[in-house]
């Protein structure tokens, strides 16, 4: 069986519901993502339990700070044995290089967030970032690649362009995945799972469409079928 391409975002306020959901899912069908909310409350202990259950973990803490601090944080995160960690590409070259250097001998993947999938053109203008979302994503992805990172977080709307620009040896991790007829919630740059894979995404981050489904396992199986066919 090929590696799982879906990463389920466990955005929960406590460990218990995350563990309950994980017990219904299977490591051959998905990886799991732990973000700021759940890690703040449940920490390394929960990661350990989920890894013992066989899941690869993406620790999505999106570090963004001075280079020394981010390097130390990445090292601490990777020491938990997680599969993937991330930083914000907008932290700049020195921060990205420091993060890369900190994980130089680690098997943990290091990727950078380009532009949050909850942001659109107007949001960009308001914070004074030049260009369209696609331009910003390409600029930051090239910077991340130059600094030796393993990939970036972007929306599926930018993946085809990034594949042309950067090629295939670079992970493109895409949140903002919404199956047809599902709620947008706070996401703005979205695509269906199938569109994302067709456009060149390596991994799809999917939270609420799975975690809030009546039957999360059945939904995960359907989504895997949709991206396989
Ligand atoms: O640009 C980004 C970066 C990270 N995320 C995270 O992905 C999930 C998406 O959850 P949904 O419920 O499927 O919207 C969430 O944990 C975010 O923190 C993102 O959405 N966009």
TrEMBL record:
Pathway: Pyrimidine metabolism; UMP biosynthesis via de novo pathway; UMP from orotate: step 2/2. Signal peptide: none annotated. GO terms for biological process: 'de novo' pyrimidine nucleobase biosynthetic process; 'de novo' UMP biosynthetic process. This is Orotidine 5'-phosphate decarboxylase. One of its GO terms (molecular function) is orotidine-5'-phosphate decarboxylase activity. Belongs to the OMP decarboxylase family. Type 1 subfamily. It holds the Pfam family OMPdecase. InterPro entries: Aldolase_TIM, OMPdecase, OMPdecase_AS, OMPdecase_bac, OMPdeCOase_dom, RibuloseP-bd_barrel. Homodimer. It is an enzyme of class 4 (lyase). It catalyses: orotidine 5'-phosphate + H(+) = UMP + CO2. Its EC number is 4.1.1.23. Catalyzes the decarboxylation of orotidine 5'-monophosphate (OMP) to uridine 5'-monophosphate (UMP). GO terms for cellular component: cytosol. Residues 5-223 form the Orotidine 5'-phosphate decarboxylase domain. The keyword Lyase applies. SMART domains: OMPdecase (SM00934). The active site is at residues 60, 62, 65. The keyword Cell membrane does not apply. Keywords: Decarboxylase, Lyase, Pyrimidine biosynthesis. Substrate binds at residues 11, 33, 60-69, 117, 178, 187, 207-208.
């Amino acid at each position: 069986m090929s590696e799982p391409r879906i990463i389920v975002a466990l955005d929960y306020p406590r460990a218990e519901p995350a563990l309950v959901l994980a017990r219904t899912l299977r490591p051959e069908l998905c990886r799991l993502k732990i973000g700021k909310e759940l890690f703040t409350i449940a920490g390394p202990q929960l990661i350990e339990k989920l890894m013992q259950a066989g899941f690869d973990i993406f620790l999505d803490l999106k570090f963004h700070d001075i280079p020394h601090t981010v390097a130390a944080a990445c090292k601490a995160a990777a020491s938990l044995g997680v599969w993937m960690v991330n930083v914000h590409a907008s932290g700049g070259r020195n921060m990205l290089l420091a993060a890369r250097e900190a994980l130089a001998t680690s098997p943990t993947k290091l990727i950078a967030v380009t532009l949050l999938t909850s942001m659109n053109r107007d949001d960009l203008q308001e914070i004074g970032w030049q260009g369209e979302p696609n331009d910003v994503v390409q600029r930051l992805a090239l910077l991340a690649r130059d600094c030796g990172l393993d990939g970036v977080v972007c929306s599926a709307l930018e993946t085809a362009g990034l594949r042309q620009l950067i090629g295939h040896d670079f992970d493109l991790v895409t949140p903002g995945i919404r199956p047809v007829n599902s709620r947008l919630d706070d996401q703005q740059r979205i695509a269906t799972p199938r569109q994302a894979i067709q456009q060149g995404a390596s991994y799809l981050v999917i939270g609420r469409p799975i975690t809030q489904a009546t039957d999360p396992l059945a939904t995960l199986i359907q989504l895997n079928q949709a991206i396989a066919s």
